[in-house]
Amino acid sequence: MTVATITLESGGDSVVVCAPNTSYFSSDIILDTNPDGIYDTGFTVRTVSGAFEQGGRIIGESVPIREMVLPFWLTPESRPRFQKLWGTPGNFRKVRWHFDGPSGRRSLTLKLAKEIKYTTEDGHDASIDGVYHAVVSALAVNPMYESAENVQQFTNPSSGTNTGYFNVWNPTDQNLWLEWAFDPATSWSFPDFSFNQERKWGRTVGQDAARMIVTPALTQLLSVMSDPMMDTYVSADLSNAAGLFNGVEPIYPVPPYTGTQTNPIVVPVICNGPSGAKATLRQRRFWSAESGLE
To answer: Which candidate, 284, 187, 188, places its Cα nearest to that of 230?
Structure first.
């Protein structure tokens, strides 16, 4: 049976808590055999029924939440290190949970949901038995596992208007929201292709197949986050630049299972600006499971 390697990382510290071999035992921070919440996210659906018909119809679902209950074995010597990984009230840390399994590395970002419960064997003092059992209750900041991001850049080769191209693909079971960054320039045009999703937004089918968004003149670096949960347009000085776009926003994610790394969707970016101006595309890919689903 293949055993994944699981690593906790926080505040500059990193510790392996599970692995195919036993060398990680030397850290004395060991994941117990019955963690909960690693493999599933909690969600519910809502239904509505008519006055004169049987049954009902699904009308929506709640945002999934990943709640994890993680038991560990510690020693009195390793307990301070373990506590520092998670932080304390008023200074909770974000802990990266890395799962290195058959599909490569996928990660969650966790924060404590309540205090860590420490117990000792048979109620004896830990200094006698030399062991603690610690139970961590944590929430995932994003309930989906994140795999390695892909970063691409286009550099404007000469002053004026030039076109660059980026490869887009989404092998996951979740929507992929593109993230852009643009250097100062007279304007940039970047893609917000619909991928046949117009009906969801009440727009004409095919209307946005090649939709492009044009920026105003930029005097500083601009970040563009297409994920509707994020601030869409943010300048380098952290000011909100949404007002410069007159209500024009990215609409469409890249749907699950769109394109492949060997056969990607090629999208253009047009720069009207100085030589050397750069456009950067980040593709952060999320999965509902720690492994598989490709």
So the answer is: 284
What residue spans define the domains of the chain?
5-143, 147-287
Residue 127 is given by DSSP the state H
CA 91 to chain centre: 22
Distance CA 176, CA 258 (A): 9
Residue 3, CB half-sphere, CA atoms under 13 Å: how many? 12
Considering the chain, what is the average pLDDT of its residues?
92
Q: Is the pTM of this model over 0.85?
A: yes
Q: Which two tokens stand for residue 179?
A: 């993230």
First to last CA, the chain: 21
183 — phi, psi (to 5°)? -70, 165
Give 39-62 pLDDT, tens digit per residue.
888 888 887 776 666 777 777 777
213 burial type by CB count under 10 A (0-12 exposed, 13-18 middle, 19+ buried): middle
Give the class (CATH, top level) of 5-143. mainly beta
Per-residue burial over 160-175, b = 16 or more CB atoms within 10 Å of its CB, e = otherwise: eebebebbbbbbbebb
Specify whether the CB–CB gap between 287 and 202 falls below 8 A.
no
State the residue for tokens 């139970």: 135
Domains 5-143 and 147-287 share a fold: no
Quick one: pLDDT at residue 3? Answer: 78
Distances (CA, A) of 17 to 3, 25, 34, 57, 248: 12, 8, 13, 44, 47
Q: What is the DSSP string of 275-289?
A: TT-EEEEEE--EESS
- The CATH number of the structural domain formed by 147-287 is 2.60.120.860
